Amino acid sequence: MSPENRNYVVLVDPQGQAIGVEEKLKAHQKGLLHKAFSIFVWNSKNEMLLQQRNLNKYHFGGLWSNTCCSHPSPDEDLAQAAHRRLQEEMGFYTPLTQAFSFIYKAADPKSKLIEHELDTVFVGIYDGEIRPDLQEIEAYRWVTLDALTQEMAENPEQFTEWFKICLAMMEEKQLLPQI
């Protein structure tokens, strides 16, 4: 994959069929529907790995979110992209399982950029060392679902919109670890 391809996203129709490519920033300025993925990793204690997005991210900077999220490059399949970004952002590899996909739209009030994504959710389990890229993330932590639920109820503005939507859908689909 060429480095310049990372600056483009794959545009899709509501059925998920590719209809073109666009520069990442332009797609977010225009709110164009594009492919994305969200990764959720748990450890053997049923704690979820969260990341706080780097404060300098072009949108939703400083907010807490799922383990990793990004976009596939035009020449890359989703699973390949998910593994690549997990390694780049969090510094580890673990097998991932594709769980489900959904469409959402959310505007960042600070940057005025719009996420309009066909988001595919991947899940995995990992108990090893985290070696984050601090250019990508501000911080990370493991959290129980009970603690996360309480924190999200008290401070919803500290979490990304897609994370809140994904988590609710995972609960609805009974994909969260049973304690």
From TrEMBL:
**Which Gene Ontology cellular component annotation is one that this UniProt entry carries?**
cytoplasm
Record's protein name: Isopentenyl-diphosphate delta-isomerase
Similarity comment text for this entry? Belongs to the IPP isomerase type 1 family.
| HAMAP family reported in the protein's UniProt record | Idi
- EC top class, as a word: isomerase
Q: Does the keyword Isomerase apply?
A: yes
Q: InterPro entries per the record?
A: Idi_bact, IsopentenylPP_isomerase_typ1, NUDIX_hydrolase-like_dom_sf, NUDIX_hydrolase_dom
Q: List UniProt keywords, sorted A-Z.
A: Cytoplasm, Isomerase, Isoprene biosynthesis, Magnesium, Manganese, Metal-binding
DNA-binding as UniProt keyword: no
Q: Quote the catalytic residue positions.
A: 69, 117
Which Gene Ontology BP annotations are present? dimethylallyl diphosphate biosynthetic process; isopentenyl diphosphate biosynthetic process
**PROSITE patterns assigned to the protein according to its UniProt record, in alphabetical order:** NUDIX (PS51462)
Pathway it works in: Isoprenoid biosynthesis; dimethylallyl diphosphate biosynthesis; dimethylallyl diphosphate from isopentenyl diphosphate: step 1/1
What's an example of a GO molecular-function annotation for this chain?
isopentenyl-diphosphate delta-isomerase activity
Q: What is its EC number?
A: 5.3.3.2
Question: What residue stretches are annotated with the Nudix hydrolase domain?
Answer: 32-165
